[in-house]
Amino acid sequence: MTRNNVPRAFARFIPAALALSLLAAGTAGAADRKHPANPQPQAAAPADREAVNHAREATACLKLAERAPDAAFDSALTWEDRGGGDMARLCQAMALFHQGQFQAAATRLEDLVPTLGSNTAEGAASLFARAGWAWLRAGNSDRAERAYGAALERTPQDPELLIDRAFARAEAQRYQDAVEDLNRAIAIAPNNAESYVYRAGAYRSLGKQDKAMEDVQRALALEPSNPEALLLRGNLRAAGGNQDGARADWQMVTKVDPDTANARAASDNLNRLQTGQVAK
Which SMART domains does the UniProt entry name for this protein (predicted)? Predict the structure, then answer.
């Protein structure tokens, strides 16, 4: 199994939505603690403006973490000094992730669960899911498994989390466990092509080529131009001796998903087909 995109459970909570939802839920940041317990009516407007400002700071900082993580980390340190609290520390964790400091990011994300994740199961699951992906990128499959497990304890019917944990399990060569997670994901959301693509990859690794092809065909019935499904079907066709079918699939990948890892893999396989080598 390969994954060329950010896990959906990681990316689904976009910075603005995550920041605003956590602030609205009443997080234990310093900005919230500064508000008086029984504000006078005339004090309500300044307090509201302060909350909005912190929400705007959170949105900007988390977006900056993706494109300029060094600057975002420094900005988050300054923001923390100005009362940013746990949201500032969340931005620091995300900046560390985008810097490639995955272990440090994962640890910080898990440390934030008791505060930022205390109000909603979804908030805690989001933090654990991000930590799981960070642990996986750090090469620690055991910690990734624990983080994804903790996320699923809070939102057990989340198909995207099940897909993400399945991918982590496949990375650890636990293909049958990955299949079980994907079975659950498909039962919950039967029209998600990604689930079938990843289950096909797990079946292929288990040597179950027929099952793998069935799942690839299901994925392509849902998304005819899905590049990962086309790439995998080409590989399965090549392994079964259908070189013309494999060539057609790989050529389609280069058209629908150019300048990507999928396209590069398809091009490599096309070159191998020309020289009589086995496709990967």
Answer: TPR
